[in-house]
Amino acid sequence: MTNINFKNTPNVLLITMDQWPGTYLSCEGHPVIETPTIDRLAKSGIRFTRAYSECPICIPARRTIMTGQTPRLHGDRVFQKNLQMPSNIKTIAQVYRESGYQAFAVGKLHVMPQRDRIGFDDACISEEGRPYYGAIDDYDLYLADKGFVGQQFSHGVSNNDYTWRSWQLPDDCHVTNWATQQMCRTIKRRNPNKPSFWYLSYTHPHPPLVPLSAYFERYSRKQIPNPLESDWSNKTTAQFLKNIKKRWPKLSDELISDVRRAFYALCTHIDAQIRVVIGTLREEKLLDNTIIMITSDHGDMLGDFGLFAKRVMYEGSLRVPMIVLGTTNDKKVPKGIVSNRLIGLADIMPTLLDLSNIKIPESCDGKSMFDNSPRDTLYAEANEGINATRMVTNDNFKLIWYPHGNVFQLFDIKNDPQELKDISKIPKMKNELQNLKSVLINNLYGEDKSFIRDGKLIGFETNLDDENKSKSGLGLLGERELLGQRGLHYPPPPVE
Questions:
Q1: Can you list the positions of beta strands (E) in 216-287?
Q2: Model confidence pLDDT, tens digit, residues 414-471
Q3: Which residues of 21-32 are buried (b: 16+ CB within 10 A; e: fewer)?
Q4: Taking the CA of residue 379 as centre, how many other CA atoms within 13 Å lie in the half-sphere pointing to its CB?
Q5: At what angle do helices 213-220 and 253-283 cross, to 10 degrees?
Q6: SS3 of residue 117 by DSSP
Q7: Under CATH, which number does the domain 6-376 receive?
Q8: How far apart are the first and last CA of the chain?
Q9: Distance CA 214, CA 242 (A)
């Protein structure tokens, strides 16, 4: 264990949300959403406007956050729900504990087995009602204690679908409130003789879209922006995009407005609960000496271009919020600054360790957001086989590649941040297109190498009717397309 002067050592609070797009902050200029707490925190620190998930899928993204490794190293770019964390990779919690910290997690870990603490002293989990993975949620147990046994999903809304209804149980039983309560108790129950690393992982605004009525009603008075539309989205030849549109058919204008209201309401609810956590730190006289980071594992398309959820490389899915506050006396983190530096989730672990003056393990392939060598490009990937999609971006442009069919898209991300115009076929963009293709090739590995011939990307073709040829999908298909619907979850008796 590293010798540490605990008196002068900062505490660390890492807050993640699930499926929160990077532009869904009022300080980002969103026309409707209300995030006053996060906005105020951003004014006290730095806000990165080009932070991306290297794999916009829940489990791979969370492995990246916890290890400081991109999917190429940690081994998942698909959603391998049974893949255990490699024992030879140091997690951020493990490094903090080896450095004399206590480390606690509350909320969604998304690791297997579910009770694997991946270096934390303890973890109080909420895993979206998945007892069939081998563990009972602490949140499920909380509901049982409150007299609502097995009723986490009695609202009838799936965590993979885009419909909504207001929360059906008392407000304090909402999972967002529960996570906040547990984290505040964890802060109060800390060992005062050690610094703390706290990880608070909210499960929303990821569906099910079940906001508290008070927050939904707040948005009922507002004009909800329509989803983005573009010619390229209707003319695309990428089969993967067509498959997504088949899974989530176009919603009526009225329903999409309400779905967005519900999503915004979940965001504002989290923002209000973060205020409670910050208040707890203040009352415990810890706030000035606590590093705070707020981010998400990925975003949600929420109807833009006819697409929903994640797994695609457009800004709504790929870009995440990224706000960092140093301690009061921190000299590395500027205050009230907006940065367009290219950031990935793999940078979270080395950044927090850097700000804590702890050596960054060689296993990390991310880098501190505050070093003097910003990256020129950032690579992202999701899925394999016919559903594979790859991306590379620099300061000005973004290239998206669908190996199946060898389909390319190029966007001027600096001047067209909403990605309304695909410029890949414009002759004057030929050189930029080729340069980014070269960067993409240099990042490919595994089966992707077979999609290159004579130094050029050729992709591949398959029989589109053969679903078995896909190594990864869009989640739960079949089951009469009920999209992972949950039922009543009564705690099972112990196995004799």
A1: none
A2: 999 999 999 999 999 999 999 999 999 999 999 999 999 999 999 998 765 544 444 4
A3: bbbbbbbbebee
A4: 19
A5: 120
A6: coil
A7: 3.40.720.10
A8: 41
A9: 37
